[in-house]
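Work Package 4 report. The design task specified in the project plan requires that, given a folded chain encoded as structure tokens, an amino acid be chosen for each position. We show below one input record used in the internal validation round.
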């Protein structure tokens, strides 16, 4: 007997009511986000066939995003003055996934001159409280419990991308509040068709305002941010942050794309999606080839705002890479911070749960096809 797949379309009101019950708040702000939510629900039905467990995770995920939106609206209403606070020269890492972005991000986050977006504040945006008080917040403990449950449900995820509530994390969760965020397209190609007709401006303006909110107690500290998905909307990112300092890491796509496919396949297995490994590669190649092209065009207009990091060099001498970044963007690396970074490097947190092992040719695209699709990029960065 075939299991009936539950639908998402038509649940908008139910999802909103659940978020209101969860938070006891009811102001979702500008209702234009509902168009993106509707598109996402349609794409979940069109592209995914999750198990009952997976369906529940997706359902709860949307409630979580709506709840974050409610908390944001409340906090912004309490601090309307922060909208006028400038965000100056944020240091933003964006690149193909699986190219060392997380390791570089967390290494740079050792430097106290930066402020970062901690995982727990993505769920409940607020003015960042003193670190010593974080565990007193229910939102922190909820995030801690969610991460433990997620890693227990997907043991491989600790090797692929470990999460910690108090650690610097990717910022796409803030973009998701607008439901106009290309991250959703990684699982749902049909969402990408809708997104292609939209402007990301409102989403990035809201994103910048949430950063203002979270960082308002340390307004003079520059932001250190990381998110591969920024590649796909780099023009909008640079409109909102015109003086951004962008770091682009580079690794051979013939290695990075299979690693990403492994990550995506793990996520689909967690959701009970009946996809086979060989159904994943073609879409990931198309998606990230588009992203590379977007950045290439932006770099022609703003060449001085980008700094390249070769993954091979970062692996062999990460501190030399950091020193090059600081020199290029005119940042100061103090002896104390340099020593703290050395300590972080020696601890090797990225491998303490084991290496992420993955096949290269099991994703519906061959190594040769990936090399051909990214031939110009590979030649430019000497991967041939």
């Amino acid at each position: 007997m075939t299991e009936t797949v539950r639908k998402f379309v038509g649940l908008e009101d139910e999802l909103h009511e659940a978020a209101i019950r969860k938070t006891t708040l009811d102001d979702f702000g500008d209702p234009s986000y509902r168009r993106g939510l509707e598109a996402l629900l349609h794409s979940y039905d069109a592209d995914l066939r999750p198990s009952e467990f997976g369906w529940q995770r997706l359902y709860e995920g949307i409630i979580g995003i709506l709840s974050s939106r409610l908390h944001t609206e409340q906090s912004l209403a309490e601090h309307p003055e922060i909208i006028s606070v400038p965000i100056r020269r944020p240091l933003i890492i964006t690149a193909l996934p699986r190219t060392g972005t997380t390791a570089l991000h967390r290494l740079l986050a050792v430097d106290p001159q930066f402020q970062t977006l901690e995982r727990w504040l993505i769920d409940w945006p607020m003015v960042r409280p003193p670190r010593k008080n974080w565990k007193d917040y229910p939102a922190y403990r909820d995030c801690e419990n969610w991460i433990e449950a997620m890693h227990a449900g997907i043991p491989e995820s600790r090797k692929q991308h470990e999460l910690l509530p108090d650690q610097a994390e990717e910022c796409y969760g803030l973009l998701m509040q607008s439901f106009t965020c290309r991250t959703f397209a990684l699982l749902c190609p049909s969402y990408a068709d809708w997104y292609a007709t939209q402007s990301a401006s409102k989403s990035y303006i809201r994103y910048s305002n949430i950063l203002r909110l979270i960082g308002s107690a340390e307004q003079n500290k520059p932001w250190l941010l990381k998110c591969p998905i920024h590649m796909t909307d780099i023009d909008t990112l640079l409109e909102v942050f015109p003086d951004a300092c962008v770091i682009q890491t580079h690794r051979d796509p013939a290695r990075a794309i299979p690693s990403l496919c492994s990550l995506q396949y793990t996520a689909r297995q967690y959701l009970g999606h009946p996809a086979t490994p060989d159904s994943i590669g073609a879409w990931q190649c198309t998606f990230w080839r588009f992203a590379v092209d977007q950045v290439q065009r932006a770099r022609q207009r703003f060449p001085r705002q980008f700094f390249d990091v070769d993954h091979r060099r970062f692996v062999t001498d990460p501190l030399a890479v950091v020193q090059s970044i600081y020199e290029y963007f005119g940042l100061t690396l103090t002896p104390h911070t340099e020593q703290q970074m050395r300590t972080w490097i020696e601890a090797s947190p990225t491998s303490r749960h084991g290496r992420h092992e993955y096949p290269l040719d099991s994703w519906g695209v061959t190594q040769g096809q990936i090399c051909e699709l990214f031939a110009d990029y590979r030649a430019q960065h000497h991967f041939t």
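The first helix runs from residue 12 to 23. Validation will be extended to a larger panel in the next phase.
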